[in-house]
Design goal:
The chain is α/β, with parallel strands linked by helices. 33% of the residues lie in helices and 22% in strands. The strands form seven sheets. Strands 1, 2, 3, 5, 13, 14 and 15 form a seven-stranded mixed β-sheet that branches. Strands 18-19-17-16-22-23-24 form a seven-stranded mixed β-sheet, sandwiched between helices. The chain has a two-stranded antiparallel ribbon with strand order 4-7.
Amino acid sequence: MGYYLGIDLGTSYFKAGVFDENGKLKGLGRQVVRKRTGDGTICELPISLFWTTLRKSVQEAIQNAGITSKDIITLSYSSQANSFVLLDGNMQPLTSIILWPDNRAGETGTQNWALENKDDFLKTTGIGIDTSPQFAVAKINWFQKNQPEIWKRVKTILFISDYLTYELTGKKISDVSTLSLTGLLDVKKSQWWNSALNAFYLNSGYLPSPQLTGSYVGGLTGKGAKLIGLSPNISYYLGCLDHHCAAIGTGVLLNNTVSESTGTVLACVSHSQSYAPDSGICTAQGMTDGCYFRMAFNNNGAVSLEWYRENFAKEYTIEELIEMAKDIEAGCNGLVAKPCVHNYNELSGFENIQSIHKYGHFVRAILESTANSLNSLIKELKGTHFSGRVISTGGGAKSRLWVQIKASIANVDFYIPETNEAACLGAAMIGAVGAGKLGDWSEVTKKWIQYKEMIKPVSKE
């Protein structure tokens, strides 16, 4: 029996999942990404820590699966977007990996985004959200202006998953899914958009060649395999953006469903057979010709819950607080949490506070606020063929109460996948389909995607 390895290059954790030919998770590795944040304006991952963290997660997964690296057939990845490294003419890093939350560019980082106010920006890039200093090009522009001694040595810019690809295979290529959130890509043509490159004094020579997700790259080189403790010649396939990968790992490609992830932010993804860029939605190439991912975000995510615990209920765990919320009726006896309640001073983000309101009320109010924001995203993404099902992933899917509240507010059925590591699963599926031994997307999805529970709306919620 062969096994399929999916790597998730997350912002908080690197994960690696080993899956068998039936899509069962046999081993999981999970390592904290220890970022360097300085005074709070930077967010970097030193190159050595990148490889140490990744190698540990891969080795942990292999060990937990009880296999050796020689048993692995394919490797693919799920990636964060807008995290990058600058390299010199010898392909040696000049910087750490600059992660997307890095805010060194400040507000001046958006001044070159005049393009976004033109009609062809949305039509070409598929980006329907506001640009910000967290986009990679804002920070690249910062290096151009503030560290010219480094910039004059730059010959190549690789995003985090491109850097992984290059070091493991020697190929300077990138997937169009992850690139879709850079604002530099012509989505329909799957190529760099010269107007955007010119706005930031760039050209395609600095950048990897865009290729479709699932493209075969080659086998791991001896050098690359050694970096993460794998065997040479394991087949490597281009992965995709983490939220897209999680959608693949929940069956969205076939089932006309919407996947949702409640993490630091809320994200919803659907799969469409038409290219229809729209405000509030980010559109990217899908897995087959004529299909596209559609994704919507909202900042009203799980961070509010952690903020409340950290500031007002530190003696309890998140799980204990959610347990308290189980005894609170819908509506929280009039208590309302505003969206992104963590952005307000003290408890001023809550409305109608009364003496009867205890920990459980405040927690339930946050869960309901998040569910209302999620409902808005689901409404944005629901197409004419929407099946009426939402697949719940991420940390929020671990709380049955939270999923029940979401289902009731959205008035749709929510499904919880058997494997909660949907991004790792989606990456492994890319490799499995690419290898061709288990069938096409339809066959692999039907075989690999299972749900352990369906949660229906209840009117009292």
